[in-house]
Design a protein that fits this description.
With 528 residues, this protein is an alpha/beta fold. It has 16 helices and 17 strands.
Length: 528
């Protein structure tokens, strides 16, 4: 029986504000996404991903750039219309692309009609749709919880008109929904059905581990410990189970991936125990330092603690984290390490998630103080995609005909997609080859995995299925490395791909194989 599509998939995150701007106002939109779909799939030279994940496009005051939702069943005019969503879904499906929509269940915007009603009076029928509490003596908030955003401070805001405080684990413009209220649960689950009825294939669930949290400590919790940032609440598991039930009302092919921002993989995999999420983003992996030993420990620990049937997923970039080429720069080694890191995301056993521009090897953009707009300093990784070199397309670099809402990356002339498209040595060419190889090779998208030893300098593993065995090895050392690969179980093979564009491919003896600094290779092993 074939494995589910989401287990084999490479999912590409689109941050609509920064992907492509068709209107010329400097902000990306859904029409721009449609115009650039051939970059992803369905055209010669396309990247070859299997699904897109769209960050929020809902009506929003943009206090948190769309994660403050004012209407869960519509589209902000900045991005387009519901008809644009329908056309996007149809265009994706025609190309064989699945569509995953970001769903934000922990909080709404303070402009959402539900919260406008809730704060209007203590007796309003929707008062209990949000988390309201009396303060402590001396005008203090109900407890010492802090926002996940350091610049915001307390996670409570006093509503002067009604004399109570409301909870917001992010900005004050993002009040937390009260999932203990059955009416909230029913209304929010209906928003899932709205998009499922329009043909979307699944959801990425924002801060899934926070949904259903309450300001009273769990039983046995001492004092006022800061359980806020890194907690998976019992209520969150119940809500994820209800989400799964909604998905299974449909054709059985819909999926949910959760943003479960915890740093304990046993707790993380608890969300994958059969009747909750299909996948969960692994932030232990995303925050791993550039160390072969650290990555190996993370991968092996996941396998050791995961319940039966739990499927891993891997990502190293998204809209909230510095890009790999910047995060792992290490004295100018960022571009080479970013190429090597592609093997970690795409060839380890699990579902792969890419962030737009990752396939171009983009670093973070330089954002001068006067251009900073995000409350949590995440502007550099959210810079617009350079589709064309500025010398040909102007300062908007093919992203927009207007003024980009954030600066384009400094090296857009060299990193633009059109420049990389026909360069066999480019990051884009490497990603295209990797995705093509993964899709065509059962061992690399569904096969068993064996991690090999190698200390701090070598990360190596073997994938196997249907009689084929493949070796993947990445050099983390400060110089060339001649690894010992006896555990690979074969003396030789065919070097099919290297992240070093200067490497000649062909037959290799594993005993004599030398990896350049920051190089990763893929070898089809000889049959035993």
């Amino acid at each position: 029986m074939a494995s589910p599509w989401w287990q084999r998939a490479v999912v590409y995150q689109i941050y609509p504000r920064s992907f492509a701007d068709a209107s010329g106002d400097g902000v990306g939109d859904l029409a721009g996404v449609i115009a650039r779909l051939d970059h992803l799939r369905g055209a010669p030279g396309a990247l070859g991903v299997d699904a897109i994940w769209l960050s929020p496009f809902y009506p929003s005051p943009m206090a948190d750039f769309g994660y403050d939702v004012a209407d869960y069943t519509d589209v902000d005019p900045l991005f387009g219309t519901l008809a644009d969503v329908d056309r996007l879904v149809a265009e994706c499906h025609a190309r064989g692309l699945r569509v995953i929509v970001d769903w934000v269940p922990n909080h709404s915007s303070d402009r959402h009609p539900w919260f406008v009603a809730s704060r209007s009076s203590r007796s309003d029928p929707k008062r209990d749709w949000y988390v309201w509490r009396d303060g402590r003596p001396g005008g203090r908030p109900p407890n010492d919880w802090r926002s996940s955003f350091d610049r915001v401070g307390a996670a409570w805001t006093l509503d002067e008109a009604t004399g109570q405080w409301y909870l917001h684990k992010f900005t004050a413009e993002q009040p937390d929904l009260n999932w203990a209220n059955p009416e909230v649960e029913a209304a929010m689950l209906d928003t899932l059905r709205f998009w499922l009825d329009r043909g979307v294939d699944g959801f990425r669930i924002d801060v899934a581990h926070e949904v259903g949290s309450v300001p009273e400590p769990p039983a046995g919790t001492p004092g006022t410990e800061p359980w806020l940032r890194d907690q998976d609440w019992p209520g969150s598991h119940r809500v994820m189970g209800r989400v799964r039930e909604v998905l299974e009302e449909y054709d059985g092919d819909r999926m949910a991936v959760g943003e479960v921002y915890v740093f304990d993989q046993r707790r993380l995999t608890g969300y994958l125990a059969g009747d909750e999420l299909h996948l969960a983003h692994n932030f232990v992996f995303m925050n791993t330092p550039w160390s072969a030993r650290a990555f190996r420990q993370t991968v092996e620990e996941f396998d050791a603690v995961a319940p039966p049937g739990a499927w891993p997923s891997w990502c190293l970039e998204n809209h909230d984290h510095a890009r790999v080429a910047s995060r792992y720069d290490g004295g100018g080694r960022g571009p080479a390490r970013a190429r090597a890191a592609a093997l970690l995301v795409l060839l380890l056993r699990g579902t792969a998630f890419l962030f737009q521009g990752q396939e171009l090897g983009l670093p973070d953009a330089e954002v001068p103080p006067e251009r900073v707009v995000d409350v949590d300093g995440r502007d550099p990784e959210r810079a617009p995609i350079p589709w064309e070199p500025p010398s040909a397309a102007g300062p908007g670099a093919g992203f927009t005909a207007g003024e980009p809402w954030l600066p384009i990356v400094a090296d857009a002339e060299r990193l633009a997609a059109s420049v990389q498209r026909d360069d066999p040595r480019s990051a884009l060419a490497l990603y295209r080859r990797l995705l093509e190889l993964r899709a065509a090779t059962p061992a690399l998208h569904e096969g068993r995995q064996t991690m090999l030893g190698g200390g701090d300098d070598l990360l190596a593993w073997v994938r196997e299925a249907r009689g084929e065995r493949w070796l993947v090895a990445v050099n983390f050392a400060d110089g060339p490395l001649r690894p010992r690969l006896g555990g690979a179980g074969a003396p030789a093979g065919e070097l099919v791909l290297s992240t070093d564009p200067g490497r000649a491919e062909g037959r290799v003896a594993l005993a004599g194989l030398e990896l350049a600094r920051d190089e990763g290779v893929v070898v089809r092993l000889d049959r035993a």
